[in-house]
Amino acid sequence: MPISMAVKTLDYTPTAPPYPSLWMGGYAGSPRGNQGQVDRRLRAQCVVFDDGAGVKVLLRVDVVSIPAYVHQAIRSQVLSLVGNNTANFMMIASHTHSGPMIGTTRPEPYIMMGLTPADINAIEGTTTVFVNQLVQLVQQTVALGRTPVTLWYKTGTTTIGYNRAEAGTVLSTVSALLARKSSDNSPFAVLFGYACHPVSRGNDRVFCSDYPGAATDTITSALGVPALFFQGTAGDQEPNDPHQPSQVTTLGAQLGNKVVNMVNTTGWTAVTGPFSTGFTEVKLPLMVDLGDPAAVIQTRDKYSARLDTYPPDDTAYRHAAVMVQQLQGVGVPRWMNMPIQRWHMGGLTVLALGHEVLSRYEVALKAAFAGNLWVMAYANECEGYVAGNDTLKAGETKHFGYEAGWTDDNTMSGPGTWTSFYAYACPLAYSAAGAVAGTTEKTLLDAATALLNS
Predict the structure, then answer these.
(1) Does residue 425 belong to any structural domain of this protein?
(2) Is the entire prediction scored with pTM above 0.85?
(3) What is the full DSSP assignment across 322-389?
């Protein structure tokens, strides 16, 4: 079935005004805010596919994370543009750590940086501007005239990072979807993906799209067409050292030139319509059943004791204070909601997983699926890390327990781990017996596999 496309790019790099807040996300600890310095501009990009059976919209944005309520605010306003079929709208965050903080829930800005209520209100104001800009971008792209294209898929390999959680898996796949104009076969747009944390710049106060932005610039400069980056299962994938501004260009050029080389060589697989889309959500279990009143009391008592262990200016103290307050009411999450989305096309399937998924899931899903599978992560919403059973079980013995979410007690969030910054009371569920029923890994893989096979 013939396919047509439209692509539009928005430079949304925040300035004050109209953005009330220039607080940045990505690194916990002391307050971190932009003072007007920009290295590489932050982009939001939208692509519309029309396969003759309705519009499908893919939105990507240079931001560290998108909380659930922000995701829903955007999705609810664009749903009518995709035939009121939620599976026809997909949103991916690049996860650059040099962008604005969006949303005030996960990560939690008071816990993460000790921000004041006024600061947090300003972040809400910035979130409103951000949501409105992305909704308008989708509306404008859908309204554009569309260009008939043919689609082609190819993978290559390059290595710009390593596995920081010591799990052994280093992802090196470069995925690319090339759109060529039907009229003359010239390139129209390139969608490309890789899995690695965009932290090559390091921790400073400069807005930057990090290596994905540098790779995008390299491709667009060489080919003269829009290039759009989509992040993969990068939860345990760290860019090569040193983490400094020049590394952004070095790694971005390496990735971008790989994509350019792929475009200029043969070996592409034709991708055809119509698209078959699917969307599901699953509740990833926590290590403690916080629906059990006795477990809630026990957990609250543990956090009360933690308040006597850390000074008030420590993130662990702030997290404990929030947990005590939430465990006294109904504010603490009892699971992690995981959105999973799938687009089947002739010759290619795209699977989009929410949150900061680790490489274990890409490896397992590709092994279980026959055909070309492009696994994206940080999709639709991002509210924490999702590790595999082995990493969860290892706790602080792997990368200080950061991705596992616990250190010395697996029924509490570990100080300085992701679960504390994202305001969870305990880590995700695992089993010493492996990825059995009731574990995070089995719950997620079963749901994703079922969606892939539907």
Answers:
(1) yes
(2) yes
(3) HHHHHHTTT-S-SEEEEEEEEEEEETEEEEEE-SEE-HHHHHHHHHH--S-EEEE-SBS---SEE--H
